[in-house]
Amino acid sequence: MKTMANAQATGHVMRCVHCGKVQETADRMFHCTQCSELLEVVYPERADAPREFGLRLREIWEERRGSPLPENSSGVWRFRELLPRVERQHIVTMSEGNTPLIPLKKAARALRLPHLLVKHQGMNPTGSFKDTGISVAISIAKAEGFSWVCCASTGNTSASVAAYAACAEIKSFVLLPAGQVSAGKLAQALEYGAHVLQLRTDFDGCLKVLHDVVRKFPAYLLNSLNPYRLEGQKTVAFEVMEQMNWTLPDHVIVPGGNLANGSALGKGFMELRELGLITSLPKISIIQAAGANPLVRTMRENGGTQLVRVNAETRATAIRIGNPASWRKAVSVLNNTGGMCEEVSENEIAQAKAELGSEGIGCEPASAATLAGLKKLAGAGFVRPSETVILVLTGHMLKDVDYMKQAPGQSLIGPMEADGDSVIRTLEQIYAQH
Ligand code: F0G
């Protein structure tokens, strides 16, 4: 079976990120028919759009805010002029996006970076940034009449796929690395009714198996090989610009796993520039765990020309990936925006997570890698004190509470006697220490 993308009806075609071949259809693995590399969605009609088109968009998007229509209250579909055309009845949305941009206080003081903010994508319906991309890709699956969707996942994609499939009344199955997915994420996939298959391998192994399965089994692939995922995820750039009142940040920093999110973010900003809505690009930097650092090694060892695969190991299980699918896209984003790729240790991630938590901002370990990475980038002088920095927090703190239980610097006291005097004595001791 082929997935159709009739250029006129849908307003887009797909282009290979490596050889540049343009195609209107893709096989179920979304590979280029010429060189087997990944595809990206492009919009040929936009090349002829008048300059006013871009400028008018700001007003259209603004007008839609506050509208009760599902396609307007979604923080993804509100920007639908820059997405593949999907008929209204096929749009699957749960008001994804619309996430807060929050200034940091303590970290800003400690790092002497007064303009430091977090974009909290963990505030999406299933608690991670995946929802923005899944909303678009599953809408395409619905429009194309699929009755099954699937993914391999370190946890968050499976939670999102399960929820959006339930919302679309489509069946789903997910392949997970057995014993390597946090309990919270597993609970979500089960609660939303996905068929959960735990495989004795890692994420990279699950994705490999899924390739084989999808060739033979009629299910629509929702991993980020699917270029429609990135179309949804790129809208975070539009939302950030609106929230910044169209003042461009100097740096945006994301964690990197399979490397689709950094790629999508870059695509979003580049499209805004093409349309004249912004005149330059923020530097987009990607942070990996030191034990799962294929992009860092690829950039360091061969300047981004050949992927260096690694055997991934990190307690930030969301980004425990050694063979990232979207590495070429991520390399172009680093090159096009002038961003850096950096690695951080397990301790640095834990420390950064605790620091974010101490200002009331919870996130999962993979997300905290951004703050850990920023410290290094600022220390090296790549980020300067006058600059505006946005850290993209990709997942909610409650996704991975087991990690937290082992974190340093927390004050869980007891069990103790249930009487007022015992509590007061303990409080007196605590007060004396402060
Ligand atoms: N942060 C979180 C919380 C994630 O769940 C992921 C990826 C990433 C960062 C990395 O994003 O892969 O686009 O570079 N999670 C995937 C999953 C792999 O299956 O949930 P990426």
Structural features, described:
- With 434 residues, the chain is an alpha/beta fold.
- Among the domains are: 1-45, no CATH class; 101-126 and 229-406, Rossmann fold (3-Layer(aba) Sandwich), CATH 3.40.50.
- Helices cover 40% and strands 14% of the residues.
- It contains 17 helices and 15 strands.
- The strands form four sheets. It has a six-stranded mixed β-sheet, with helices on both faces. A four-stranded parallel β-sheet has the order 10-9-8-11. The protein has a three-stranded antiparallel β-sheet with strand order 3-2-5.
- α6 links the parallel β8 and β9 (171-177).
- It is globular, with a radius of gyration of 22 Å.
- The protein starts with a strand and ends with a helix.
- The model is unreliable at 1-5 (pLDDT under 50).
Distance between the termini: 66 Å
Strand content: 5-15%
CATH topology of the domain at 101-126 and 229-406: Rossmann fold
CATH second-level architecture of the domain at 101-126 and 229-406:
3-Layer(aba) Sandwich
The structure class reads alpha/beta
Q: Low-confidence spans: pLDDT under 50, at least 5 residues?
A: 1-5
Number of strands: 15
Shape: globular
Count of discrete alpha- or pi-helical segments spanning 4 or more residues: 17
The strands making up the biggest β-sheet line up spatially as 6-7-15-12-13-14
Question: What is the share of helical residues?
Answer: 40-55%
Main sheet summary: 6 strands, mixed
Bound molecules: ligand F0G
